[in-house]
Amino acid sequence: MGIVRKQSIQSSIISYVGAVLGFVNKVLIFTQFLTEEEVGLANILLTLGLLYATFSSLGYVNVILRFFPYFRDRERQHHGFLSWALVISTLGFLFITLNFVLLKPLIVERFSDNSPLLIEYYYYIVPLGLFSLYFQVFESYLRSLFKTVVPVLFQEVIQKLFVMASVLIYAAGWVDFEGFVMIYVGLISSVTLLMVVYIAYLRQLHLRLRISWRFRKLNYRMLVFGGFTLLSNISVIVLFNIDSIMLADFKGMDAVGIYTTAYYITALLLIPWRAIQKITSPLVAEYWQAGKMADMDRLYKRTSLINFVLGAFLFLGLMTNAHNLFALMPASYSGGLVVLFFIGLTRVIDMLTGLNGYILITSRLYRYDLIFNGLLVVFAVLLNWLLIPPYGISGAALATGLSVLLGNLFRLIFVWYHFKLQPFTWPMLLVLVVTGAAFAVQMVIPRLDWVWLDLIVRGGVVVLVYGGLTLLLRVTPDANNLLRVLLKRLGVAEQN
Questions:
Q1: What end-to-end distance do the CA atoms of the chain give, in Å?
Q2: In a designed cystine with 135, which of 42, 124, 192, 288 is the match (CB 3.0 to 4.6 A)?
Q3: pLDDT computed for residue 496 by the predictor
Q4: Residue 82 burial by CB count (10 A; 0-12/13-18/19+): exposed, middle or buried?
Q5: CA-CA distances (angstroms) from residue 398 to 85, 129, 335, 336, 478?
Q6: How much of the chain is helix, strand and coil, in % rounded to 5?
Q7: Where in 280-383 does DSSP place strands (E)?
Q8: Do residues 299 and 54 lie in contact, with contact meaning Cβ atoms separated by under 8 Å?
Q9: How many Cβ atoms sit within 10 Å of the Cβ of residue 263?
């Protein structure tokens, strides 16, 4: 856990800086200087760019994580692994782009009435898709090299600073809305170029195509794995984004703007989870290769526990200050409260189940992940179709929450049945007790008139009660060890 702890802490710190920037962007800047419809466009462009990149990757993002250990050899430039990943992904992009152009008339017919702004900026999705694709490839490559901190810096901090700059340029009146979209897309895309510079700095930018015996030996397995994980990844992206796409269809871009803003706030819960996952996912592949099931079991349980501790704490802080968050935005955004609750609760359960998805997709039974995701996409589309027309953004949140919860249940049972691995430990019951106690204490505090003061006071009480009880009851050794290290560095505790 040494590598996991060190890099996940660094990544978490960077991610929380990015979270502050993201909060300022989405809650304070976007909602003040853009209309709900314009917010919806800015957010859905990123969503569609990610979907575009996922289709284009042909599953090679996961192939890198799964098979790179077999090719790792710096002296032989990892047998041309990166160059083949880029070539295959580029071919996928060209194929998807051809279909994207051919399908435009159908998209126009479907979305032109309720979301004309999306049709107007339709082709801006192409560059976003291309640079998102290359970013994913480079990120997976760096994760396999156990270099995760700098990519997190690029994605969580630099990109958000670029987004902030683009909105402020528009707010200053220096460009019209079309100019804003051009700058917005251009600056977001440029982060990928920084990744290239970083990989070159590490002297790991190996672009020479080579066909080694490893490729000939593993080629079929990589193709099959890539095909299945491509379909699985598409299912995941569709599952988590079909709600906003169907909202654009049924209710328009203004509903998308409100929904995606609240949805983004819940994404703050996943910051520690993502930081830990970026480090642990390559370890899962290494453990499968070496047959270290006992190590995988320990990793599964420890990451699930620390994820649950952090997730419950962040969800508690979010819900106890929900009224303050919406007070910082225009009144039209208050309808996002239901989104905060349903999606936020879903995020916590997602964190609790930990590595079940990575364990499954890197195992010999990875094909079943596609079956699960396919069924869940059908379920999600059906629920959104039924719930969005009568209930709007609340219906979308409920549909997504139920779909994700069902998917986690399927994977949890499957991984336990086939591999005898499950994430639950007794300290998780203590987490529920601590959460309930912290919620009860903050309920005693009367609501203060000044939003920022109420947020600080209420949040401070939650931190003190939840954090204090977690450390006092020794819920997780990782939290206590981290506190001990911090105290030593501050000179409060004695050095060993």
A1: 20
A2: 192
A3: 47
A4: buried
A5: 38, 28, 14, 12, 34
A6: 85, 0, 15
A7: none
A8: no
A9: 26
Give the confidence band of 223 by pLDDT, cuts at 50, 70, 90.
confident
Query: Can you give the three-state secondary structure of 367-415, one letter per residue?
Result: HHHHHHHHHHHHHHHHHHHHHHHHHHHHHHHHHHHHHHHHHHHHHHHHH
88-111 burial code (b ≥16 CB/10 A, e <16):
bbbebbeebbeebeeeeeeeeeeb
Kindly report the number of other CB atoms within 10 A of residue 284's CB atom.
Answer: 25
- Would you give the DSSP letter of residue 154? I
Q: Is the pLDDT of residue 185 over 90?
A: yes
Whose tokens are 């993002």? That residue is 61
Closest CA to 89 of 127, 55, 139: 55
The kind and range of the H/E element at 4 are helix 2-23
pLDDT given at position 8: 62
In whole angstroms, give the CA distance from residue 144 to residue 278: 9
Distance CA 23, CA 275 (A): 18
CA distances from 165 to 29, 49, 195 (A): 10, 20, 20
Tokens of 271: 């910051």
Flag whether pLDDT at 479 surpasses 80. no
Q: What pTM does this model have?
A: 0.80
Model confidence pLDDT, tens digit, residues 273-284? 776 776 777 788
Structure tokens at 189: 């895309």
> 342-366 pLDDT, tens per residue?
999 988 988 888 788 888 877 888 7
What's the half-sphere exposure (Cβ side, CA atoms, 13 Å) at 425? 20
Asked if residue 390 has pLDDT above 90, the reply is yes
Two tokens, residue 37: 């419809």
Q: CB of 268 within 8 A of CB of 19? A: yes
Residue 1's pLDDT band, with cuts at 50, 70 and 90, is very low
If residue 250 lies in a helix (H) or strand (E), which one and from where to where? Answer: helix 213-250
Q: State pLDDT tens for residues 404-424.
A: 888 888 889 999 999 888 888
pLDDT over 70, % of the chain: 89
Task: Judge residue 345's burial from the number of C-beta atoms within 10 Å of its C-beta, 0-12 exposed, 13-18 middle, 19 or more buried.
Answer: middle
Q: At which residue do the structure tokens 């953004």 appear?
A: 393
Tens-digit pLDDT profile for residues 283-305: 887 888 778 888 888 888 888 88
H helices, E strands: number in the chain: 22, 0
- Decide: 199 and 141 in contact? Cβ < 8 Å: yes
